[in-house]
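Problem 12. The chain below contains 170 residues. Write out its predicted structure in token notation.
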Amino acid sequence: MDIIFNCPNCDQELAVDQSGAGSQIDCPSCNQTITIPVSGKVTTGPLPPAAEPPSPVPAAAATAASAAAKIPLHLKVPVRDTPGEMLIAKPKPPLEIVQKGAGKRLRIHTIRRAQCVESGHDHFDERVSEFLAQVTETNLVGIHVINYDFFDVATQKMTSDYGIMIVYRG
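Solution.
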């Protein structure tokens, strides 16, 4: 049978096997030393004052009192039947948005024409078509033309180029 009691320091509910009654343990929540009450009592107040200090332990008894010789006491934390409370509640999206498939995140993919030129052949249109086929029309939000300048290492000049920015849900 278990003894169920509250820590007098932090009020954490603990359960200990009855064989541990009267012994001292460290609270797993606040790490304070507490005395396990006798069966049938629940302590919620301050700790009782200590009697007199213990007498010195002889060398033979010191081995018996070592940590290896002690019987381990297993503390049990009570388990709840209901789920714990939520600390931060996230609002649910409106039903109209969920029905349209907007539960997916907005994403952006940019394709620059300069990256599609291989061995003098321009594969810009093919790459754009392949990507749009992967996204599908239902997830497509918008396609925007972009102009940008970059430093061409081969010619050592600033060059103007174009590309597209695709906004989609996915």
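Discussion. Confidence is low (pLDDT under 50) at residues 41-48. Students who got a different answer should revisit the alignment rule from Section 12.3.
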